[in-house]
Amino acid sequence: MNTPESDLARRFRRAAFVLSTPDARTLPADSGAEVAFAGRSNAGKSSAINAICEQGGLARTSKTPGRTQQLVVFDLGDGQRLVDLPGYGYARVPLAVKQQWHALIDRYVRERASLRGIVVVSDVRHALTDFDRQMLHYCQHRGLRCLLLLSKADKLNRGPALAVRRQVLAQIADLGVPTTAVVFSARSRDGVDAARVALSALLDQ
Ligand SMILES: Nc1nc2c(ncn2[C@@H]2O[C@H](COP(=O)(O)OP(=O)(O)OP(=O)(O)O)[C@@H](O)[C@H]2O)c(=O)[nH]1
Ligand SMILES: [Mg+2]
Predict the structure, then answer these.
(1) What confidence tens digit (pLDDT) does each residue in 4-48 have?
(2) Residue ranges with CB less than 5 Å from ion ligand 2
(3) Are 55 and 9 in contact (CB under 8 A)?
(4) How far is CA 81 from each of CA 5, 101, 130, rounded to the nearest angstrom?
(5) Measured between alpha carbons, how far is residue 55 from residues 10, 13, 197 in Å?
(6) Is the CB of 42 under 6 A from ligand 1?
(7) How far apart are CA 68 and CA 51, in angstroms?
(8) Ligand 1: centre distance to CA 54 (Å)
(9) Which CATH number goes with the domain that contains 73?
(10) What's the gap in Å between 62 CA and the centre of ligand 1?
(11) 0.90 exceeded by the pTM?
(12) I need a surface site. Which of 35, 127, 160, 165 has the fewest CB within 10 A?
């Protein structure tokens, strides 16, 4: 069944901030359906959420890596939520803080029963990082689907970006994780509609 594009946009436009927490135990009740955005620090996770939801200030973004330091939850209504995760791999935070973030992400993706899929945001010029692969392994272990957003596509021509998409899909084929890969730019809005379609499929499964 095809959802008209306007309905799709409306669905994400109504996203509203719920809470930001450093502790997975204080998240909203673990029911309904949730999709989490993961990716290297500065990859463009928060910008992707804002572009998809057409709300500039919904998720906080920053030029400085390490902006998102907690689990940030957005409500879409109908028991569905998006979660912005802290970025991994940012060198300039103390090791103890890094370990704390990793433990937070690890616990969340292992234990969150309502998690339906993971959006891995990876800069199209640097895809995939070891951390991105780690997230795909989590998907594999839990039988979750993945939406791979190859971000900042405005920094690359269309041909090379599509070549990266093909290469990455070939690289991860052996994992057997059902993955949709979208060439994406929060700046040019390239791939926003495709991302909405894929996200809806994750939330509604
Ligand atoms: N050119 C370009 N820059 C982008 C795009 N998306 C994000 N950026 C920039 O990349 C930087 C990081 O964006 P964020 O969305 O804050 O990244 P993040 O992954 O949430 O980062 P952390 O919260 O630190 O993990 C900001 O300076 C954004 O303006 C894009 O599509 N194109
Ligand atoms: Mg962020």
Answers:
(1) 668 899 999 999 999 999 888 899 999 999 999 999 989 999 999
(2) 45-46, 67-68
(3) no
(4) 20, 21, 27
(5) 12, 7, 18
(6) yes
(7) 16
(8) 15
(9) 3.40.50.300
(10) 7
(11) yes
(12) 160
